[in-house]
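Weekly puzzle thread! Below is a chain. First person to post its structure in token form gets bragging rights.
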Amino acid sequence: MAIAITIPRLTWNMDEGVFVGWLKEDGEPVRAGDPLFTLEGEKATQDIEASDAGILRIPATAPNAGERVAVGAVVGYLLSPGESEPVAGGALTAGGRQTVAAASVAPGAAVAEPLERRGRRERPRSSPLARRVARELGVDWTQLRGSGSTGRIRKVDVLAAARGRAPAGRGLGPPLSPQRDGESPATPGRSVPIGPMRRTIAARMVESCRTTAPVTLTTTADATNLVNLRGQFQAAGPEGRDLPGYTDFLIKLTAMAMREHPMLNARWDEDRLVIPDEPHIGIAVDTEEGLLVPVIRGAAGLALGQIVERTRDLVRRARERRLRPDEMQGGTFTITNLGAFGVEAFTPIINPPECAVLGLGRIAREPVMLGDQVGARERMRLSLTFDHRIVDGAPAARFLQALVRLIENPGPALIP
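Winning reply:
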């Protein structure tokens, strides 16, 4: 009995994805649990596993690499030995059934050569990111020589080819639309396709502005003791070990402050407010493809070393586009840090359905009055945007006061 291979739903609101490529060849035996193909969702690229066994049959109607495919679409079949492929352009034959493809990430697993059509096996190996960039820049990646250890084509190879191809003084990509009657003259430049991740980010930002009543409070904390504590970790830490940064400190301190002020951990759910038992802190990660927010679960109950380990792992895999969807879900509060860019204060946008987001500004050494004397202290800017539907200004301000106290005396909270 032929088993149809369908596109799974990676997230609850996913309607379609981008087919990256096959991980098995046409006619190859497949076991349950084997990776079948790679699918790009809204914010993650994942290998899709087979939940049944059989002989893989890739029909002529299978999608090309880079094509958008709807959830539930049939892209191939698993057949018994000697069984024929279903007819009618991919429709199931009588008695046929569908396999429920499972999404999983296999860190470090080698990506097999993708098949865009049956019999096209001469194409070189390439990474999903390289193919996506090539598609956006109009580069034929199949003609490139890869610089990877096995000849695999990487993003740098695509970018190098694009730079070498582009005439001097002109941008990459298709030209902008010509001017029409009644329109303003077109500005010279290039047209950049909007990928699924950027569309998702845009939709989330619009949703936040449409469904929340955001208010931003800013304050300043004396971070001198925090800076000294980080210096102690750096001086005592063994070489090669990941040392805590300011974001790691603030994840722990914010989670502890939220235990005192649980309404900042709440979310609006139709006709009620839901207050989770524990804060789950999302951290905004800047990647080449856009902003991702992986979640540190149960942050208040974690030791600082555990937070450092989990943060480094999530950030690394976020930038490699290897996060699982569940690792970006379930957050109750978000922290975003622009201090490294010299930003003092800003207005972060709430990540719905969360109640609030904390923006970390730069730490700067400034003169302050210490009694009757002028002294130098390390000062840190904090920007808290909260949903006024859930909490009022005074409770939000009290939360900031509690956080400032923890920042100014971080030792008891950060050192066991």
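Puzzle host: Confirmed. Bonus trivia for everyone else. Residues 42 and 196 are 5 Å apart (CA to CA).
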